[in-house]
Amino acid sequence: xxxxxxxxxxFGSKNALINVDLSVPSGVVFGxxxxxxxxxxxxxxxxxxxxxxxxxxxxxxxxxxxxxxIRKIGYLPxxxxxxxKMKVWDQLIYxxxxxxxxxxxxxxxxxxxxxxxxxxxxxxxxxxxxxxxMAQKVQFIATVIHEPKLLILDEPFSGFxxxxxxxxxxxxxxxxxxxxxxxxxxxxxxxxxxxxxxxxMINQSRKILDGTIxxxxxSFRPEIYKITLSDLTATLPQSLDAKEVELGEWQFSAxxxxxxxxxxxxxxxxxxxxxxxxEVTPTMEEIFIHQVKSSDHE
Length: 298
Ligand SMILES: Nc1ncnc2c1ncn2[C@@H]1O[C@H](COP(=O)(O)OP(=O)(O)OP(=O)(O)O)[C@@H](O)[C@H]1O
What we know:
six-stranded mixed beta sheet, four-stranded antiparallel beta sheet, 14 strands
């Protein structure tokens, strides 16, 4: 869907992006991750042709991106942009018409989305009279109203309570199921785990990680196992820091430390009954912190 090659952007003496390559396949939710100031918003703004790159190329559906492609993209910026004095209905119709929909299409789609998100009764309210979360729902509709092929969402859950965040999460998944490609930039790693098929991480203007969630997790195996033993036949070494979770049942974590899982398992079998032997998989949050810290030290 989107191919980015060798993108560089410098603001004065400040690097924002250095030689960034990115490949976003069709129909996925793609997580764009990175700490504050990494360069994510700059990248998103370049894709949206709000600012220009110094060098590099962007291809959308195989063709060099052009101003006409803006209609294929829906962009929810981190700083929301609604007109405070306008009413919800007028605002959404305005955005829909701006994206090229006929008056009739605009009416139909705005009605459909207001009902879908259960906010039909807000039609005549002014934006300034809405709460942050309510305005956020209106902005979400404004972003998807023209059924873009590529949806770019910058922190789409900020301002939402858990119920509304869940509603928006489901809408994002629904859009993906209907073929929309989604780029999701967020600091909420639990949303990344739930929604994203692939992720790329940017740190200090450079891409430092790229792959499916499964690939990324597989490359960060901490080689730690969670273990439960019962019916002990030996005294557990103090270094294991085992806790008795139930009478006669002990839990602890053990690192492979160069052994194979089978070797570790054999050692455990000599200590008692092995009731649990599970490899610990890191969360995206742990991977994020580890990656950022280790690339900052390089
Ligand atoms: N218009 C600008 N003028 C000067 N420097 C800028 C400008 N826009 C961004 N930068 C700088 O470029 C770098 C990348 O910023 P960017 O906003 O892309 O980061 P980000 O990853 O989106 O961060 P956050 O997660 O905090 O939103 C930062 O050092 C920032 O200060």
